[in-house]
Amino acid sequence: MASQVLVAANRGPLSYVLAADGTLSARRGGGGLVSGLSAALADQPDALWICTALSDADREAVRRGVAEPGVRMLDIDPAVYDDAYNGIANTVLWFLHHHLYDIPREPVFDARFRQRWQSYVTYNEAFARALAEEAAEGAKVLIQDYHLALAPGLLRELRPDLRIGHFTHTPWASPAYLGLLPADIREQLLRGMLGADLVGFHTEAWAREFTASAGAEAPVAVFPLGVDGDELRSLANRPEVNDKLAALRAEVGSLKTIVRVDRTELSKNILRGLLAYRELLTTHPEWRGRVVHLASAYPSRQDLTVYRTYTQDVAELAASVNAEFGTPDWQPVLVSVQDDFARSLAAYRLADVALVNPVRDGMNLVAKEIPVVSEAGCVLVLSTGAGAYEELRGDALTLNPYDVTETAEALHAALSMPEAERAERTKRLSAAATALPPAAWFTAQLARL
Ligand code: G6P
To answer: What is the pTM of this model?
Structure first.
């Protein structure tokens, strides 16, 4: 049966695991986009989510015709997928939108880049074709993120009757950064996006970057994704999280906590966060032995060498801070590399200070989740580069993400803030964070289409 509401995203709501005896079982997918969209679609039982088969187990599920209701996985040639996902989406488009290039060396747009771009086109065509097959007459389609920037234009050609939305969960590159692309590629990218009837972003700032390149008449709108407060609090109070919290408390004792939770992602600025913590312990030695930095940095995009190197650099810097300041009964930094949502929620509950210092970030839901869940109220130390800055700046302590000294001073001010002020700010942060929960974020876009 054709669908009235369709979503397209590289990552799906679930992934399969193939057991030794050949049986397939479904697990929940990971990442910010997936948690937001999954929550939004809980209210849309008839919606269809089209995604990529990411692993061999996913591809096996497609071949066997195993399917969860509401999900269609596309079995894309692994070599094409590798070029499109690793070669273009994550090393070109992600780097442009987050301003991550080490300019003396990158980017290099050569013949190999052109081949990869062809795979990116093929990958976008596969999505456009699948959407065209599955959509009912006049259906609404919401295409997600930089992986699928060409799909709106391609789909428009196949099915002019559809209402097409595109939503970007990342920042959008400044015109100067977008101008690094070869002119014809930049044109294709913008034309692809402008195939949509509605182009959505998390913040005014990213929408402005887009119109600065695409033109003021672009059909842009801002939908700042928030969190579902009730849902998150109930998740954070499950017995499993209580157990993790008890374990963390046993480890941390009465020390103050600075908490961060990220994918080990270049744009998250984890290294400067650690440098700031080191500077705090140097310039404010009164905190030695009285604070602990809980840094959860779980692995991401490990196919890419730069991510593997970065992961190693984070571990080494954390170890060097521990070696420099640690004592037999105090370890300054506790790093966790497990993607363990229950443990993250336990850390949120315990947080005195939340450190969110990305160089550039579409929204950053962690900045919204911690104030909602923290028990005693926490101080949010927030980068001006996070999308969440637009809504949370009034009650956070804000910083320039490159300024390690300013970050260290913000950590000091946060640790020193009186309880009453901290509680008041947390209440307002939590209200702002829950202003547009996923279901409302999604239906607002459908209504606007
Ligand atoms: C960001 C992107 C998402 C992506 C997520 C995890 O939040 O906006 O589209 O799913 O990172 O990255 P991954 O490459 O593991 O899907």
So the answer is: 0.97
